[in-house]
Write a structure and sequence with these properties.
Length: 174
């Protein structure tokens, strides 16, 4: 009787562990599947708003501040009114170009989705469209990186040093 009860308990415990593991794995998979969809949605929103969404992070990491970041810290950087106006103009021009290029990129992505929704997509058409998507993405990235390069020239060396200090502190907090 004790042996049967012990065996039964072991089977129930093992089954519970397996069931827990399956539920845990399913929950992990659901979270893993949701993350890319959430990222795609965030990128879509950034494209519609003309934001860089990390496309110029390499410029920022190498001492080329973005116009939006400069405007966020205009008081800490002690921007002069003429500098602020130049940065605002640059930010708006960048935003406008990025929105237009983002719309082009989204249209190409929708076309890719349409092509791939067929049972037999044309490989040459898919490849050509991927090239167009790549070119649009490169153009969009240049819009943002170019703005960072231009923005750096608006700041004085002291403001640039202060910007880099602020950025370093922000990075340490995150």
């Amino acid at each position: 009787m004790k042996k049967t009860l012990g065996t039964l308990l072991a089977v129930v415990l093992a089954g519970s562990i397996v069931l827990w593991g399956q539920q845990h794995n399913r929950r992990d998979q659901d979270e893993e599947d949701a993350a890319p969809r959430e990222c795609v949605e965030q990128e879509r929103q950034a494209l519609q708003e003309g934001r860089g969404f990390g496309r110029a992070a390499v410029a920022d990491d190498n001492g080329f501040p973005g116009p939006r970041h400069i405007l966020d810290w205009k008081k800490q950087l002690d921007l002069k009114p003429a500098q602020e106006k130049r940065v605002e103009t640059l930010a708006e021009r960048t935003r406008s170009k990025a929105i237009a290029k983002g719309q082009e990129l989204q249209a190409r992505e929708q076309e890719l989705s349409r092509l791939l929704s067929t049972s037999k997509p044309n490989p040459q058409a898919v490849q050509k469209l991927l090239g167009q998507i790549g070119a649009a993405e490169a153009d969009l990235r240049w819009i943002h990186i170019g703005a960072h390069i231009e923005a750096r020239d608006i700041l004085t060396p002291q403001q640039l040093a202060r910007y880099n200090e602020l950025r370093e502190r922000q990075d340490q907090r995150h």
